[in-house]
Design goal:
6-stranded antiparallel sheet; 19 helices; 28 strands; elongated; disordered C terminus
């Protein structure tokens, strides 16, 4: 007797479902059970699927996929419908999937089953429906919690708190793969030390988790007897935990098994298709969460490593000077970007302070920053002057960015090969005299806080950012840092963070510099960063709509007052200096602004207006009547309320000015007349290489406290 005849006698049919070709082969009994003519047939998948109830098909589809993934039997109940959509019978299907490279073949049986009687559990679909709704709600909650976890420890904590509907495990363990070893990276429901030999084992060990990792398929052990039969070597080690059922599910990401997840139960669990589906879904979400957390932790470790290697310490103490620095990575999501600072000992015994910003906040910006920093250190250590150091650095950056050629802006990854530039400020410092030789490449100007606490932007000559042209010139500006004065240099992130531009950002920072005059540089550095990122910064947003945050690099250098170290009550002197070149007459406006900032707390507003008018005349005369540049030096000395302002404008011409009588419509000739009318004192001092025109104003107060001019 044939097998088909025997099966037909007990109302059981055979079928073969080929996923690759989309065809289903039925014997005569299987065709009859599906409501088709009782004869052998090969049908399309769509024709067979139309015979199943839609709800049942959705369930059986998930069960088949689970069986294919695990290599287990696929068992399901299916309601069969006729052409009019009426249910004619219920069948039970049991199939074994045979997997191929990218498809599978199901071979199994179909058998009619009796309909449940009224009053039985199976007759109440609401029970199954409630369980399924609970399962779906659980999976949604679990998925949301795992998606929000940002570290491996958070993922493991979420996994330990999962309460599955109807069959919650009381013991969980997550195994990870490291080379040829399997280790426990987290567990729940075990006492310390219970891991024993399972904490670190070889992948070829006779243990379910190792078997799962080797084969990539889940293992379900519903009874202790089943565990003892399949894994006799490790059963004696597991027996003491007094568990009744175990599930070991692979953790798979992008087709790669990264570990295994164990769920152990104190009560027996049959591991029905629904239960296996829940466990498999949780394992899939857990694997994705662990992979994301691992990548995030690797990125953080890489960023911190780059930051530690690229952000140097400030080195040994400098006699007579104090240095403080800060680096705050706020842009791009990385912990390191294109901003940097450095302090370089020089062969002459002096040292250099360098601060810069490479365009961008990505990994390439960080890489270019590291290369550029090394190049600057090398050029400086050779003993080159500041202008030569920046010229060589610009040629270096231009060479390494242009070596990629001119990329097509339409190709993917264009930004990775596009030329980059960098701004930089280089200061050579002589600790003995306080002399600062400054070269600037497109970077914000330094800020000087004078001995009495007044903060002023100190304009300096500058050139193009590094890397724009192969050959660029960078003029040098010389300043002297007097005892009690502090210089601040920073990247634009400190100024512009929070939607500010350079003007409004400076307005925000200036009160901080002037307020913390009695604090050390470390406290001042913290206060400056806090002003940008602290709670109060949210109420001082700038005028710009684009509020992209930027990295911050900050350097502070203070020359200690005579005979002391650290912040002191400095002498009451305030000074600023500025060079106006023949080719830069627009800087006259900057000179007027500098003088107003120097005299921001002067008692008499009319005297400030007079001083600004006089320096405009003095500088204009130099630019019009000579071929050289004008050097402005302004100094206010003395206690508040009785200070004396002295302003000098020097040039290289030997021709002395003389007073003229301008006509009513004349556009020149009023300079000396104005000085004679407005200044307390004025004069012209010949020098060996030119002359200096100067005036003085005295600050006075009336007896009632109001200001009065003596001019």
């Amino acid at each position: 007797m044939r097998t088909e005849d025997v099966l037909a006698a007990i109302a059981t049919g055979l079928w073969r479902w080929d996923n690759a070709s989309g065809t289903v082969t039925l014997d005569a009994e299987a065709a009859r059970l599906l409501g088709l003519p009782a004869k052998r047939a090969t049908l399309t998948e769509a024709a067979v699927r139309s015979r199943f109830h839609p709800v049942d098909w959705n369930e059986v589809d998930g069960i088949i996929n689970l069986a294919v993934a695990e290599g287990t039997l696929a068992e399901a109940r299916l309601r069969i419908m006729d052409e009019s959509g009426r249910v004619i019978r219920t069948v039970r299907s049991r199939s074994k999937p045979l997997t191929r490279e990218d498809s599978y073949v199901l071979i199994g049986t179909i058998q009619e089953v009796a309909e449940p009687q009224p009053g039985t559990t199976a007759a109440h679909p609401s029970i199954t429906g409630d369980w399924r709704r609970s399962r779906e709600a659980f999976l949604l909650d679990a998925g949301r919690a795992l998606a929000e976890a940002r570290s491996t420890s958070e993922v493991l904590r979420v996994a330990a708190s999962l309460s599955m509907p109807g069959f919650s495990p009381d013991g969980l363990a997550v195994f990870g793969v490291a080379g040829e070893r399997l280790t426990i990276i987290g567990h729940h429901g075990h006492n310390p030390g219970d891991d024993g030999p399972f904490a670190d084992m070889a992948l070829d060990m006779d243990y379910p988790a190792a078997d799962v990792v080797r084969n990539g398929r889940a293992i379900y052990l519903p009874t202790p007897q089943e565990y003892r039969r399949r894994f006799p070597a490790t059963w004696p080690l597991v027996q003491r935990f007094d568990r009744q059922s175990w599930a070991f599910v692979p953790l798979i990401v992008a087709g790669r098994t990264i570990g295994a997840w164990m769920a152990a139960f104190k009560h027996p669990v049959a591991f029905t298709p629904d239960e296996r589906s829940v466990l498999t879904t949780v394992a899939r979400m857990l694997a994705q969460a662990l992979a994301r957390a691992g990548e995030a932790e690797n990125e953080r470790e890489l960023s911190l490593g780059l930051q530690r290697s690229m952000m140097p310490t400030l080195g040994p103490e400098i006699p007579g000077m104090t240095v403080a620095a800060r680096y705050v990575p706020t842009g791009g999501g990385l912990q390191v970007g294109g901003d940097w600072y450095d302090m370089i000992p020089l062969p002459t015994g002096s040292f250099a302070l360098v601060i810069g910003d490479v365009q961008g906040h990505d990994v390439r910006a960080a890489g270019l920053m590291g290369q550029l920093r090394i190049a600057l250190r090398a050029y400086a250590s050779e003993g080159h002057r500041p202008d030569a150091v920046l010229s060589r650095a610009s040629r270096f950056l231009y060479g390494i960015t242009e070596s990629y050629g001119v990329p097509d802006p339409h190709i993917e990854g264009y930004e990775d090969y596009a030329p980059r530039f960098a701004t930089c400020l280089y200061i050579e410092v002589d600790p003995a005299t306080g002399t600062l030789d400054i070269a600037r490449a497109g970077h914000p100007d330094p800020v000087i806080r004078t001995a009495d606490g007044t903060a002023l932007i100190r304009p300096t000559a500058g050139g193009l950012p590094l890397g724009i042209e192969a050959d660029s010139d960078y003029p040098t500006t010389r300043l002297v840092l007097d005892p009690g004065e502090t210089i601040m240099i920073c990247t634009d992130g400190l100024i512009e963070t929070g939607g500010h531009d350079l003007a409004s950002g400076w307005t925000r920072l200036r009160p901080v510099l002037e307020k913390h005059t009695d604090d050390g540089l470390e406290e001042l550095a913290d206060a400056l960063v806090q002003a940008v990122h602290g709670p109060s910064s949210h109420h001082t947003t700038g005028p710009l709509v684009d509020r992209r945050e930027d990295d911050i690099a900050l350097l502070l250098l203070s020359r200690n007052a005579e005979g002391r170290v650290g912040p002191t009550a400095a002498p009451a002197v305030r000074r600023t200096a500025l060079t106006i070149a023949q080719a830069e007459p627009e800087r006259i406006a900057g000179a007027r602004k500098q003088l107003r900032e120097l005299l921001h707390d002067w008692a008499d507003e009319e005297q400030i207006d007079s001083a600004v008018l006089m320096i405009s005349e003095m500088i204009t005369n130099v630019l019009v009547h000579t071929d050289g540049d004008a050097l402005l030096v302004a100094e206010a000395r003395g206690p508040l309320g009785s200070r004396r302002l002295r302003v000098e404008v020097a040039d290289a011409s030997d021709e002395l000015p003389h007073r003229r009588r301008p006509g009513e419509m004349a556009s020149s000739g009023r300079g000396l007349v104005l000085m004679q009318m407005l200044a307390d004192a004025w004069g012209v001092d010949p020098r060996g290489d030119g002359k200096s025109i100067w005036f003085e104003l005295s600050e006075t107060r009336a007896a009632d406290g109001s200001a009065s001019s003596v001019a």
